[in-house]
Amino acid sequence: MVRLPLTPAEVERGQRLGALLRRARGERSMLETALAARVSPETLRKIETGRVATPAFPTIAAIADVLGLSLDAVWDEINQSERGREPGGTGYDAGEWLAS
Questions:
Q1: Contact in structure between 100 and 55 (CB atoms under 8 Å)
Q2: Does residue 29 surpass a pLDDT of 70?
Q3: SS3 for the chain, per residue?
């Protein structure tokens, strides 16, 4: 399957997601967090640095659970700047996130 290039909005969203996860992880090690979420440390590293801007929903759900984040809080954080640009919406379809 060929993946289309990411849009600037998707890249920005991935960077916000990575920053949120880094803040939530705090002093916990990346290895400890990744193993608890049952993802590889390299996957967590790529998400936190924005290199994987559109991670799979189950991956984010597992990491958020380990970090004690609600998916609603994650969703709100990663879509905050789009709300200012598009009246009445997030600019991002939840089905799109689920499909990535």
A1: yes
A2: yes
A3: CCCCCCCHHHHHHHHHHHHHHHHHHCCCCHHHHHHHHCCCHHHHHHHHCCCCCCCCHHHHHHHHHHHCCCHHHHHHHHCHHHHHHCCCCCCCCHHHHHHC
The proportion of the chain whose per-residue pLDDT surpasses 70, expressed as a percent, equals 80
Specify the higher pLDDT residue, 22 or 1.
22
Query: Which tokens go with 45?
Result: 């590293």
Structure tokens, 37: 């979420």
- In our burial notation (b when 16+ CB lie closer than 10 A, e otherwise), range 38-66 reads ebeeebbebbbebebbbbeeebbebbbeb
